[in-house]
Amino acid sequence: MANEDGAKEAGKPLVFAYYITGHGFGHATRGVEVVNHLILAGHDVHVVTGAPDFVFTSQVQSPRLFLRKLVLDCGVVQADALTVDRLASLEKYSETAVVPRDSILATEAEWLKSIKADLVVSDVVPVACRAAADAGIPAVCVTNFSWDFIYAEYVVVAGYHHRSIVWQIAEDYSHCQFLIRLPGYCPMPAFRDVVDVPLVVRRPRKSRKEVRQEMGISEDKKVVILNFGGQTIGWNLKEEFLPPGWICLVCGAPDEQELPRNFWKLAKDVYTPDVMAASDCMLGKIGYGTCSEALAYKLPFVFVRRDYFNEEPFLRNMLEYHQGGVEMIRRDLLVGHWRPYLERATTLKPSYDGGMDGGEVAARILQDTAHGKNYRSDKVSGARRLRDAIVLGFQLQRAPGSDISIPEWYANAENELGFRTGSPTASESGDASFRQTSVSDDFDILHGDVMGLPDTINFLKSLAELHASSVSDSEKNQIRERKAAAALFNWEEDIYVARAPGRLDVIGGIADYSGSLVLQMPIREACHVAVQRIQPGKQRLWKHAQARQQAKRQENAPVLQIVSYGSELSNRGPTFDMDLSDFMDGGQPISYEKAKHFFSQDTSQRWAAYVAGTIIVLMKELNMRFESSISVLVSSAVPEGKGVSSSASVEVATMSAIASAHGKCIGPRNLALLCQKVENYVVGAPCGVMDQMASACGEANKLLAMVCQPAEVLGLVDIPIHIRFWGIDSGIRHSVGGADYGSVRIGAFMGRKIITSSASAMASQASSNSNGANPEEFGQHDIGLLKAEASLDYLCNLAPHRYEHIYVKNLPESVSGEEFLNKYKDHNDSATVIDGKYVYAVKAAARHPIYENFRVKAFKALLTSSSSEEQLVALGELLYQCHYSYSACGLGSDGTDRLVQLVQEIQHSRSTPTEGTLYGAKITGGGCGGTICVLGKNNAQSSQHITQIQKNYQNATGYKPFVFEGSSPGAGKFGYLKIRSRVVSNQNKK
What we know:
Elements: E1 15-20, H1 24-40, E2 44-49, H2 54-57, E3 65-69, E4 78-80, E5 83-84, H3 86-98, H4 101-114, E6 119-123, H5 126-135, E7 139-143, H6 147-158, H7 164-173, E8 178-181, E9 194-196, H8 208-215, E10 222-227, E11 246-250, E12 263-265, H9 272-277, E13 281-285, H10 288-296, E14 301-304, H11 312-321, E15 325-327, H12 330-335, H13 339-345, H14 358-370, H15 389-395, H16 408-411, H17 432-442, E16 443-447, H18 454-470, H19 480-486, E17 495-507, E18 517-534, H20 543-552, E19 559-564, E20 575-579, E21 584-585, E22 588-589, H21 592-600, H22 608-622, E23 629-636, H23 646-661, H24 668-683, H25 690-697, E24 702-707, E25 712-718, E26 723-729, H26 739-768, H27 780-790, H28 800-807, E27 814-816, H29 817-824, E28 839-841, H30 843-863, H31 869-889, H32 894-907, E29 918-923, E30 931-937, H33 940-957, E31 963-964, H34 971-974, E32 977-981, H35 982-989
Parallel strand pairs: 1-2, 1-6, 2-3, 6-7, 7-8, 8-9, 10-11, 10-13, 11-12, 13-14, 14-15, 19-23
Antiparallel strand pairs: 4-5, 16-32, 17-18, 17-32, 18-23, 18-24, 19-20, 21-22, 24-25, 26-30, 26-31, 27-28, 29-30
């Protein structure tokens, strides 16, 4: 323990308790490097870990090293080498560290005292930090990521009942003195102070020549080391996967796995740095150990993305920044299409020249800290994080209706990443007419009109910048998606551009799939898609696509190549390509089920279903065939996961651009219906059609009124000049494909089936007993109604009073899928499948659309009534009722509830009835987070109150919500642009 003055005598041997997670070898291999330097300095180190002993004993032979086998966290549970099981990870952590928490803390605090530890070091075991505090011993973390950040997303999408885990982990970490942060780090807002160190890597012990001689590998052989954490079992590795003359050294291959003759097994305890130094490139998944050592040894790294491991984007960015990485598409890995990637890797010249003595530096910092030196970083605490990470850390833990005390150090974390993912251009401010002139200098617009839209003008400017970069030498300084986009188009040919906005669900929401009237407003933020048809022989194929065609002996076959901007914000691959022949089977388009399976195999490229899915729908529904190659650039400023229809805007813009490029004119309504098929049948999300209809058919500053039976546009409703709508983002990610949305939809369709069955039974009874029936119970009019209700096609066609009078008593609060199927056989919804083991809420799910349809009709009628305070109050009340109906269905969220409450507080704080500014608010779209819609007066004071809500929410949660304001035309109104490079045009004229 430290002396009273906080310092120990310099030079006195210290005792370190070093906790290392058992998750992957990377933690252990970097930990042993720090441990070794501490022992070399004369200190005792007790390592507490579940990692294999040989990782430590093979590098450190000293009586000062003490190994204690203990697992205090679980990391992530992997379904296979490339996929994390998110729910299983949370459940395993709960089982490992939450259930026995009290016992762990008591045991560890006692043990720390028994060894007289001077300092606890954690990489990056949360409970160790709290145990140190309980024992009165200072603690320091050494890591590049923390588990609160990793688990935050898992809680939202897979295990909401485990929400307390994230905050508990953050609290545990907060007991650390500071964080020793490694390169390639993630956002880690739980740490108050940060000290950055160089790479912590193991050093090779032998030269390349020595290792090759020992292994019998001549210098003329190319060698790739395969490192997937020993999880290659089940992979059918084949000799032809490698280029001729290559050898693959396989790390951790199971003893029972048979390998081809050019694949060599490495011993389980092989010292990997030596083998890496003797190799020409590495193929594997990204982790700190593999990434840092590849950079340190300047070894090109061919990597394959993992699903749902949030650390990866940051390591990948570091790898690519130093020109040391090549991304391999997962399907190419599994089918053995390795050659183009390996050959590409050997042409790289990794440029990392930073420090590699992080182990020594970290050991010195730990030693100084144990002696009492106070380390303080010059950075704001937790200055890097993803925009959603911080709100999840405490918002998920907050009890409804009460506030949790949020430490200042947590709430001060800055939002470093940009919010919108639009094209990488200058800001939208500035004079549009000036930029219109600038655009005309770059392109001839052969068809269409930019309509003065700043985002469209900026998108065209970004295309001009791509053209300029495609003929310059500036490629090295570009991010990967920009490099790919620069080579996407043949600038001598025409390019087609379409634009589709997101939408704000003013009212109607999830009642669309039940046939409700809905009112939707297209927002200012939109998706732009540029498409070009190219003769296959003229398309510049990416190297792996070219090699794939050569292997198939199908050179010059049509290929689809897609680049999507903003990929890093959602950890998806920035590019996608496929042979268009993959959409054909026996001369006919493949089924939707096969198309869905095709895109679902790789999570990092699943996004391509929204884009490429439009092609299979056009093939199947309009009998279109695609003989030319297609290049597609997607640039969306509609943020994902906010409930403003980012997916619909991508689908509508893409299909509009592709159809236009192929001379096909599709009306806005049909365009929306076709795009819904993309989402329902190719993506697999059970959405209604209102999102696509609003994006395709909407107009600026008007509400699109439509009855979703299936998609009857009633017209456009002018927004009265005294009324304004805003959207405010809660920071909680929303997904229409989530289980909650789907289960509520199923519950509604179950309710309809129960109602129609009840009506049929009552109508049959009334008809058979008509002579002797009580006329008050079964009048002729009632029999007619019952027969109509027995064939009810949409739930919203049932009047609320009929529901309350006749049917509500027949609806169960909930029913299991198995019980329902046994009694009713089917729920008659092609977009969803009933899970027999799941219990579905029926009454609330069925009630919502019946009353929502009534609310929307009343809302529409009120909008056209005379302006008055009563009008605004009534409109706002309808929004509030809708919001609480969402909650009754189970589609609310703490974040959106808080925002609605803030609106109410402002509404009811006015001193007189005439001073009102805001009048109502509701959650939008599919619910479960996302954005709220706010109704207010169209004046400056209302805007000020929206800003006040934004600030109040940030003060309460640490998250500054984005405000959607303004509107723009739908895809139908915009049409399409046909453009041609002016530079090329002028050259041709000469």
